[in-house]
């Protein structure tokens, strides 16, 4: 078997790469001296993939909302009991999560890595789903959905996505609704599994003080499928220019209005390195405009319009992208008008080159800090991989971003036509 | 098992004027961090003022005259991060000032980030921006308003709120009921001159613990100590230990109504066990079997078998000798959930502990301890907690004590644990 090794001397890290004949890639990032060994087995399949044409088929399949997340819960069930119980016996902490675009199965352990890793490879490749266990899971997931229904930050986030997008499934809650999960059964779960859990659509990552060769050899032996499957056709509604609504509100039991606002982005098919580049440049711009060192942040703070909960972020995937910033405010509409005014005024006078350089350096330093944590490395690595890049590319991205590029993206992204605001308001008399 | 790593060795390197300086020498991280803690007894008299001080200090220093100037400077220091927080451990209120920075070997230029960061941290704490010999009035008023909003915003996170409210109801009349951020009533009473005097008192008389972690060399640490020695300190406050046991009383039932879609059930117990007693080690294993993870009785029965909840856990507040069980459930399932939870406690009292439950609990505790070593903040928090509870355990000695706990000892400690309060957060229409 062939193992490739890349040295990233600037950040003092190494990456070992192995490609299985099925098309699956496996990576090891050794972390000398670390106690925790963190392994992930992930598929490029998330909550937005609710319409598709499976390999060897010529018709479209449409599945209930929340099914990717439901499947994530059900994969822990095995013929001889729950995988969680087996992990408990070795002392490992197993977990899994579903995002818009991918599903990750993982464990972290300080002992018996080989045994735990074998289990991970095994259960993700061998689903055991019964009608009975599907019905039982509906009660648990219904409570997960209810918990999020009462979470004002989560609601502000999804309501804003609903304001950005008319039809795109990114506007739908990852876990679906109590109603939509009632339509989930063994047969549609298995259909999704067979379509998206082929090794060629998956990736394995191990971060920790492990022997890279030995670990990758385990992958070579543990992946059962060798054939390549034809591509899965993922179907999304036609993208639309502009937004769905520019304002949306909901009442919940909160002490102060909680808001999210931002700009839906218009993409040009950015992939791989270009996708990371756009991500970093918009994050950099957000720091320049509303970050803690910006004059606007400090003005809003001193006027009591925002507090330290205020934060910003940018998300980019192949089919959608948006910036978001929010927190708590007595007057979200005033925050909105101040931010839009500031953007208008920067558009007139141009961005500040000195701030650009300073913040770029600072973000680079903050990127290095993330390499302290095996979890954070995994959380950066997997999404970057599915975009067609590796997380270490981020480091080069900082060197490739020019002031001219930032200025160009600034003018395009921060377009008032694509701006929306979502507010969670207190219930009167609460 | 290898416990001879450097995270095991947290050295008290100097102690003077009520200041203890600890060093965590670890090279595996890419950052260095400095933590300065001030400890006080949790009291109605001081709590709100203690909570307000860090918020005011972070607004500016004599040299960096605003929050913005501090933020700009942190960016220049390659994205160093500064933060402060107020928390409680048992009946201690803790004010924490924190800074971290990338190690000089990653900046690519000749930097001295440790000195710069240490100086900034000390400057924020000891050289606040003054106007006519006291805190700037507008900054103070803004921070009073922010703190008021923080206190009011407790209800926004329902999961956390249900736990904190149950603790409060349990400990009515004891210092532990005091919220770490104080109360609005006391906030309204704070006068400027008063607060400034209190600030001087904190600086001069409250016990301080300083933790320096990372690859910082001896000379730099010595020069930091020299600076700390220049602080004028006198009459160091002698902190009192919390009262653990309380006379037995009838079970306290509390129902609170808010507009929620999920009910939150919290059940509070007195453990009657202090962290420096031998029983404490059995208590930790007991708690793990009951609700300390996926192997626990609560997870297995309340979630997996009965599908009543998505989350169900028990947690110790070791300093005050309390245990809290909490879960999110369908509102009409309250009695069923309560009975099922109390049955799990009773089962352990009856000696109903399977090999699986016992072994998994010990292993899960071990993994938890080992994992601490991968986070600088977790290492610091571990040793600070040891200081507060008057114990001198290391990770290794702790693990040996947990491993030695027998089933009989678990049953004994389970019998000592007393049900105190049953709190239910439910919807308005109930």
Number of strands of chain B: 13
How many angstroms does the end-to-end distance of chain B come to? 54 Å
* Overall helicity of chain B: 40-55%
Largest sheet of chain A: 7 strands, mixed
Assembly classification: heterodimer
Estimated share of beta-strand residues of chain A: 15-25%
Element order, helices and strands of chain B? EEEHHEEHEEHHHHEHEEHHEEHHHHHE
Report the major sheet of chain B: 6 strands, mixed
- What is the total tally of β strands of chain A? 17
For the structure shown, list the relevant keywords:
heterodimer, A: about 425 residues, alpha+beta, five-stranded mixed sheet, 17 strands, globular, B: about 425 residues, six-stranded mixed sheet, disordered N terminus
What features would you describe in this structure?
The complex is a heterodimer of chains A (430) and B (430). Chain A is α+β, with helices and mostly antiparallel strands and 430 residues long. Chain A is 42% helix and 21% strand. Chain A contains 15 helices and 17 strands. Chain A has a seven-stranded mixed sheet, with helices on both faces. In chain A, α9 packs across α14 (393-400). Chain B contains 15 helices and 13 strands. Chain B has a six-stranded mixed sheet with strand order 1-2-8-3-5-4, sandwiched between helices. Chain B has a five-stranded mixed sheet with strand order 9-13-10-12-11, sandwiched between helices. In chain B, strands 6-7 form a two-stranded antiparallel sheet. The longest helix of chain B is centred in the last third of the chain and has 18 residues, at 355-372. The radius of gyration of chain B is 23 Å and the shape is globular. The N and C termini of chain B lie far apart (54 Å). At the A-B interface, α2, α4, α10 and α12 of A face α2, β5, α4, β11 and α12 of B.
Question: What's the layout of helices and strands?
Answer:
The complex is a heterodimer of chains A (430) and B (430).
Chain A: E1 3-8, E2 13-19, E3 25-30, E4 37-43, E5 51-53, E6 61-62, H1 67-74, E7 77-78, E8 81-82, H2 83-90, E9 93-98, E10 103-109, H3 113-125, H4 131-149, H5 152-164, H6 178-181, H7 186-196, E11 202-208, H8 212-222, E12 233-234, E13 247-252, E14 258-263, H9 272-290, H10 295-302, E15 311-316, E16 321-328, H11 332-349, H12 353-370, H13 374-386, H14 393-400, H15 403-413, E17 419-426
Parallel strand pairs in A: 3-11, 13-17
Antiparallel strand pairs in A: 1-2, 2-3, 4-10, 4-11, 5-6, 5-12, 7-8, 9-10, 14-16, 14-17, 15-16
Chain B: E1 10-16, E2 19-25, E3 31-41, H1 44-57, H2 67-76, E4 81-89, E5 92-102, H3 113-126, E6 130-131, E7 134-135, H4 137-152, H5 158-170, H6 184-189, H7 192-205, E8 208-214, H8 218-229, E9 252-257, E10 263-270, H9 279-291, H10 297-305, E11 309-317, E12 322-329, H11 334-349, H12 355-372, H13 376-388, H14 395-403, H15 407-416, E13 418-426
Parallel strand pairs in B: 2-8, 9-13
Antiparallel strand pairs in B: 1-2, 3-5, 3-8, 4-5, 6-7, 10-12, 10-13, 11-12
């Amino acid at each position: 078997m062939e193992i490739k090794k890349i040295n990233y001397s600037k950040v003092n890290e190494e990456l070992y790469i192995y490609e299985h004949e099925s098309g699956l890639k496996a990576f090891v990032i050794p972390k000398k001296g670390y106690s925790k060994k963190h392994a992930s087995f992930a598929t490029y399949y998330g909550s937005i993939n609710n319409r598709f044409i499976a390999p060897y088929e010529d018709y479209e399949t449409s599945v209930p909302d929340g099914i990717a997340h439901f499947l994530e819960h059900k994969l822990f069930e095995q013929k001889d009991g729950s995988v969680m119980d087996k992990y408990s016996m070795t002392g490992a902490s197993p977990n899994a999560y579903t995002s818009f675009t991918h599903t990750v199965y993982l464990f972290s352990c300080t002992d018996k890595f080989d045994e735990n890793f074998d289990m991970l490879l095994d259960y993700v490749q061998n689903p055991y789903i019964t009608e009975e266990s599907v019905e039982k899971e509906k009660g648990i997931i219904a409570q997960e959905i209810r918990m999020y229904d009462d979470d004002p930050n989560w609601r502000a986030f999804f309501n804003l996505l609903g304001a950005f997008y008319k039809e795109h499934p990114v506007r739908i809650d990852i876990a679906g609704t109590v109603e939509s999960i009632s339509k989930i059964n063994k047969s549609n779960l298995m259909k999704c599994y067979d379509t998206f859990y082929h090794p060629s659509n998956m990736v394995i990552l191990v971060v920790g003080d492990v022997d890279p060769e030995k670990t990758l050899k385990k992958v070579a032996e543990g992946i059962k499928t060798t054939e390549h499957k034809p591509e899965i056709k993922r179907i999304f509604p036609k993208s639309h220019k502009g937004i769905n609504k520019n304002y949306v509100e909901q009442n919940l039991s909160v002490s102060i209005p909680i808001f999210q606002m931002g700009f839906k982005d218009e993409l040009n098919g950015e992939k791989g390195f270009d996708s990371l580049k756009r991500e970093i440049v918009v994050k950099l711009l957000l720091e320049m405009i509303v970050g803690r060192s910006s004059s606007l942040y400090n003005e809003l703070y001193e006027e009591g319009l925002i507090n330290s909960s205020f934060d910003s972020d940018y998300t980019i995937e192949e089919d959608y992208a948006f910036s978001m910033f929010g927190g708590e405010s007595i007057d979200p509409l005033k925050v909105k008008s101040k931010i839009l005014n500031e953007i208008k005024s920067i558009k007139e006078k141009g961005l500040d080159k000195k701030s650009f350089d300073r913040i770029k350096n600072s973000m680079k330093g903050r990127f290095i800090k993330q390499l302290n944590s095996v979890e954070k490395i995994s959380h950066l690595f997997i999404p970057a991989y599915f975009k067609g890049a590796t997380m270490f590319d981020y480091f080069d991205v900082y060197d490739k971003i020019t002031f001219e590029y930032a200025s160009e993206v600034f003018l395009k992204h921060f377009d008032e036509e694509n701006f929306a605001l979502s507010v969670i308001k207190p219930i009167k008399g609460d | 098992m290898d416990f001879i790593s450097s995270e095991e060795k947290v050295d008290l390197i100097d102690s003077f004027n009520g200041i203890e300086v600890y060093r965590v020498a670890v090279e595996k991280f890419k950052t260095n961090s400095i933590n300065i803690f001030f400890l006080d007894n949790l009291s109605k008299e001081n709590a709100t003022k203690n909570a307000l001080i860090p918020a005011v200090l972070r607004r500016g220093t004599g040299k960096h005259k605003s929050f913005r100037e501090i933020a700009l400077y942190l960016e220049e220091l390659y994205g160093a991060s500064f933060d402060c927080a107020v928390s409680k451990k048992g009946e201690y209120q803790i004010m924490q000032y924190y800074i971290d920075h990338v190690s000089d070997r990653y900046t690519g230029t000749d930097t001295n980030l440790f000195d710069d960061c240490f100086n900034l941290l000390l400057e924020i704490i000891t050289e606040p921006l003054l106007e006519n010999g006291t805190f700037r009035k507008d900054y103070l008023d803004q921070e009073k308003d922010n703190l008021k909003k923080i206190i009011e915003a407790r209800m926004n996170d329902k999961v956390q709120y249900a736990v904190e409210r149950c603790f409060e109801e349990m400990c009515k009349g004891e210092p532990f009921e005091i919220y770490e951020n104080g109360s609005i009533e006391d906030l309204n009473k704070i006068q400027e001159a008063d607060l400034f005097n209190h600030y001087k008192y904190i600086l001069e008389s409250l016990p301080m613990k300083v933790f320096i972690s990372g690859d910082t060399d001896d000379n730099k640490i010595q020069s930091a100590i020299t600076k700390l020695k220049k602080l004028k300190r006198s009459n160091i406050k002698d902190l009192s230990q919390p009262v653990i046991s309380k006379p037995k009383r009838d079970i306290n039932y509390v129902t609170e109504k808010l507009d929620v879609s999920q009910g939150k059930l919290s059940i509070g117990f007195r453990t009657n066990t202090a962290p420096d007693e031998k029983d404490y080690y059995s208590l930790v294993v007991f708690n793990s079997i009951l609700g300390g993870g996926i192997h626990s009785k609560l997870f297995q029965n309340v979630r997996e078998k009965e599908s009543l909840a998505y989350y169900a856990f028990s947690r110790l507040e070791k300093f005050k000798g309390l245990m809290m069980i909490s879960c999110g459930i369908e509102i009409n399932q309250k009695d069923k959930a309560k009975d099922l939870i109390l049955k799990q406690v009773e089962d352990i009292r009856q000696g109903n502990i399977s090999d699986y439950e016992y072994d998994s609990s010990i292993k899960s505790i071990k993994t938890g301890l080992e994992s601490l070593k991968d986070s600088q903040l977790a290492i610091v928090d571990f040793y600070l907690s040891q200081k507060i509870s008057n114990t001198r355990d290391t990770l290794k000695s702790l693990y040996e004590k947990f491993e030695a706990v027998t089933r009989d000892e678990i049953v004994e400690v389970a019998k000592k644990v007393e049900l105190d309060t049953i709190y239910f957060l439910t919807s308005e229409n109930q």
